[in-house]
Amino acid sequence: MPAKITNADPAGGVTYCNNNWLNFSGGTFEEFRDFGYHNIMHPDEISEFQERFLKAAETGTELEMEMRFKNQAGEYKWHLNRAAPVIDETGNIQMWIGVTTEIQKAKEEEHRKSEFLKMVSHELKTPITSIKGYVQMLLRMLQKEEEKQSSSLLLKPPLLRIDAQVLRLTRLVSDILDLSRLEESKLELHIQKFRIIDVVQETVQDILHSNSNHTIQIVNDFDCEIYADKDRIGQVIINFITNAIKYSPNNNNIEVRIHKLEKNEVAVSVKDFGIGISIEDQQKIFDRFYRVEGKNENVFAGFGI
Question: Both ends of the chain: CA-CA distance in Å?
Answer without folding.
Answer: 37
